[in-house]
Amino acid sequence: MITIDSLTKKYGAFTAVDEVTFTAEPGRVTGFLGPNGAGKSTTMRVMVGLTEPTSGHVHVLGRPFGALPNPGREVGVLLDASAQHAGRTGREILTIAARTMGLPKGRVDEMLERVSLTEEEAGRRVRNYSLGMRQRLGIATALLGDPEVLILDEPANGLDPAGIRWMRDLLRGFGDQGGTVLLSSHLLHEIEVIADDIVVIGNGRIVAGGTKEELLASAGTLARAADPAVLSRALEAAGLVTSIADGAVFTDADLTTVGRAAFAAGIALTELRTADGAGLEEMFLELTAESQRDAVTDNKLEGAAA
Amino acid sequence: MSTATMTPEASNTPSTVGGGTAAVARRPERAVPDPIPFGRILGVELRKMFDTRSGFWLMASIVITSAVATVLTVLLSDRDELTFDSFAASVGSPMSIILPIIGVLAITSEWSQRTSLTTFTLVPSRGRVIGAKLVNVLVIGAVSMLIALGVGAVGNLATAAITGNDAVWDIPAWTFAQIVLANELGMIFGFTLGLLFRSSPAGIVGYFVWALVLPGISEALASAQDWWADNAAWFDVNQTRFLLFDSKLTDTEWVQLAVTSGIWVVLPFLIGLRLVMRSEVK
């Protein structure tokens, strides 16, 4: 359980994190989604006591992180998989962490196996690791102390699709055992695949939050029939607002309403489903667009022209 | 398998011994783990000073340079004139360079390699980590000096064996203690520069400016200015620190050493510590 309460972090006049409040529940994988520079990493650093907040607070398992007597045993943290001494071997990095936490020696081997790093890879120095291998090592470090909470910043970065699937299964299993997982990403797709709950941050503020289903449901319904125009007219007649794109009819109504309306009009649907989180994607794209470099340059040019 | 975790057997046993948590039957409330003892942090930090190639060779260089300096002294000097003090001088100069660098790197390597991210999430109390590093640095300093003493002693015996003269042991315990103190002060100053700059090059350059450039400036100033010539010992830490190597300090000189160490070592150390405690770890 992670509770973040009105967290604000300012750097001079710049507000990196602005009154952020949300909770990551036990048994759930919470995705922390936002474009680069939105304040995800800063929020996570504050969570684990590496950055002092300007105001507000974060409690992990009911306490500030700094008050945990042996944090590694309760909270697994991966902030940056590349932040390791390049001259240490993967095994050595795990051994140091295991010793700090006071874990038995065998634990290191268990974790190497769990993240599928071979004996040979574990003996290699980290400077020779690919980003994917570093992420696996970072996950191993986070899981080492058998924690109840995982805080992972961009853990899927550098993983191939099989790796992302592996991570999803791993985090799913962790959540199913009652653990709390908070992971960040700047990629909507990654979060969609892995998370149960989604918190969206943009420019330091929380702009949306809820279960994945809720956020996807708000995107509306997609329906197909032999003739989309006929279906559209039937739904409009039932009082629904529709639009047609790619031969499919979109409405804001839920699945049941659309299905009933089509049935009442005697139209055989060929497809009926939620509209793929188009709404979430739209919102996310808008957020991203604001922080896009080209967009910024365009604005500057316009400003200069004006 | 000595671990109680993640084994199927453990998941079926409802009793949990010493925080043994089962994969499936994970209890909602778990025992709060014991705090990390300082001794463990000490051990981990010591290991981190040796477990990379650069760290290992830096430590090994203490032994290697001592041996090389001793062998060169035996080979190149007028052997009839050699005493234990000659060896102390030749072994001491590489020590006075390597030890402070160890002091600097003990801190800065956490930042240059960004391992501080892991270190301070596993042990959020930064003061304890810094404390452990300081203890390790001081112990390494003392042990290095003992190694240097031992290597020098072997050199002195070897010389005696070659020349047939009796070995001259002209370093009394108090002199050795003073030399150790002088080197430990240098190490603490290096450590302090590490805390202040959190950058290896800046820390190392800073140390050499302090140890090699500032004394020259002070000397130049003293020759131009009578007041400085008379009173520099109250401000220039190196003036008294260098005395530690070869003369017995008077009471006044001890007070001067305390005062200058306060200005140059203790005060910057406290400032550096405060900076590290408050700084954002990225």
TrEMBL record, chain B:
<keyword id="KW-0812">Transmembrane</keyword>
<feature type="transmembrane region" description="Helical">
    <location>
        <begin position="204"/>
        <end position="224"/>
    </location>
</feature>
<feature type="transmembrane region" description="Helical">
    <location>
        <begin position="175"/>
        <end position="197"/>
    </location>
</feature>
<feature type="transmembrane region" description="Helical">
    <location>
        <begin position="56"/>
        <end position="75"/>
    </location>
</feature>
<feature type="transmembrane region" description="Helical">
    <location>
        <begin position="254"/>
        <end position="276"/>
    </location>
</feature>
<keyword id="KW-0472">Membrane</keyword>
<keyword id="KW-1133">Transmembrane helix</keyword>
<feature type="transmembrane region" description="Helical">
    <location>
        <begin position="87"/>
        <end position="107"/>
    </location>
</feature>
<feature type="compositionally biased region" description="Polar residues">
    <location>
        <begin position="1"/>
        <end position="16"/>
    </location>
</feature>
<feature type="region of interest" description="Disordered">
    <location>
        <begin position="1"/>
        <end position="26"/>
    </location>
</feature>
<feature type="transmembrane region" description="Helical">
    <location>
        <begin position="134"/>
        <end position="155"/>
    </location>
</feature>
<protein>
    <submittedName>
        <fullName>ABC transporter permease</fullName>
    </submittedName>
</protein>
